[in-house]
Design a protein that fits this description.
This protein is mostly helical and 348 residues long. It folds into 2 domains: 210 residues, no CATH class; 76 residues, no CATH class. It has 16 helices and 4 strands. A two-stranded antiparallel sheet has the order 1-4. A two-stranded antiparallel ribbon has the order 2-3. Helix 3 crosses helix 13 and helix 4 runs parallel beside helix 6. The longest helix has 27 residues. It is globular. The chain starts with 11 loop residues before the first helix and ends in a 5-residue tail after the last helix. The model has no long low-confidence stretch (mean pLDDT 87).
Length: 348
């Protein structure tokens, strides 16, 4: 197979391509084969974990577009997932929509909710924007709880599982495939959006919004567009979450999830599509390690409360360590490895 250092780009399309060599295409094909043959060698627990990772990757891609690329910090991402999840559940349970018809409606409704709560970003930023988006979490959940006749209130709302014809996605394996298809598609869209004119405008706003405005970037349009697109991703993730359980409940979208999504971006690397995936996978692995470590901690050294909360402690510690020692996240190490590979055998 050809080495990257011996590959010369002859036009802009080749230079901007994501996969430049046959080796990279082979590795991509191998990864997809391993990913989509997962149910053949994964047990139910690992399949459930991978399904959760796939749904979270979709949500974090949206937050990465909003916060990582455009610099608009949002602490209410889980609430926008709730908007998408409940929209899909209501359309299916109350109005007889199919999952496939309800899904785009859920994405659009979450996007419009993002537009509404993104309006303050036109005048405020930083800490004040954090507080504005934090309010979205509590306002949206409060509205859902009050609309008992529509949403079921605290009791939740049962809904149907996705299906194609007579085939229903009710087994763990079938839903795994469904989620992975959406996760791969979301990654493809997020990566190409970052390389487009819209993505470059987002990065310009993140770097210096005043300079971006002087260069002709319409801050009103692109800031609201970042909220709309980012929350659409959240709406898709929320819909997949609700239909996975065939039940919608506000307990599926707690505020702490919004915090962890920010943490995943910190660990993986903000403003990097692959970093969003790394952050989700890494923190999920930490969570699984914590769940296995908690029961075997000696109570003579650790109090029972600490042993029960070891997952939260490990996650928090990991985020702090990355903030101190590697603020660019795992994506920075990944880019270093790729640079070494592309210069091989002249990496020195």
């Amino acid at each position: 197979m050809s080495q990257p250092c011996g590959v010369f780009q002859e036009n802009y399309a080749q230079d901007s391509s994501i996969f430049r060599t046959k080796t990279q295409w082979v590795l991509l094909a191998l990864f997809l084969v391993i990913l989509f043959t997962g149910p053949l060698y994964l047990d139910n627990r690992l399949m459930t974990m991978m399904t959760y990772i796939g749904i979270t990757v979709i949500a974090v891609h949206g937050l990465n577009i909003l916060t990582g690329y455009c610099g608009q910090i949002s602490m209410g991402h889980a609430a926008f997932m709730a908007v998408g999840g409940y929209t899909s559940a209501i359309l299916c349970a109350k109005l007889g929509f199919s999952f496939w018809a309800a899904l785009p409606c859920a994405a659009l409704m979450a996007g419009f909710a993002g537009l509404l709560f993104g309006l303050p970003s036109l005048k405020i930023k930083g800490f004040y924007l954090i507080m504005a988006t934090l309010a979205a979490q509590f306002i949206i959940i409060w509205v859902i709880l009050q609309l008992r006749d529509i949403t079921g209130g605290p009791d939740g709302l049962s809904t149907a599982r996705p299906q194609i014809g007579d085939f229903v996605f009710k087994s763990k394996a079938s839903y795994y495939y469904l989620v992975m298809v959406f996760a791969v598609a979301a990654t493809y869209v997020a990566k190409n959006l970052a390389r487009s004119k819209i993505g470059r405008a987002f990065v310009a706003i993140d770097n210096n919004d005043l300079a971006a405005e002087v260069m002709g970037v319409n801050l009103w349009v692109y800031k609201l567009l970042a909220f709309f697109i980012g929350c659409m991703f959240a709406g898709v993730a929320g819909s997949l979450t609700v239909h996975y359980y065939a039940f919608a409940s506000v307990d599926q979208f707690p505020f702490i999830n919004s915090v962890w999504y920010i943490g995943m971006l910190i660990v993986g690397g903000m403003g990097n599509t692959v970093g969003a995936i790394f952050g989700v996978v890494f923190l999920k692995i930490i969570e699984e390690l914590g769940s296995m470590l908690g029961p075997i901690l000696p109570t003579a050294i650790f109090v029972p409360q600490a042993a029960a909360s070891i997952t939260l402690l490990l996650r928090g510690l990991v985020i702090i360590l990355f903030l101190i020692f590697q603020p660019k996240g795992l994506a920075h190490w990944w880019n270093t490895v790729k640079s070494y590979y592309r210069l091989w055998p002249f990496s020195y």
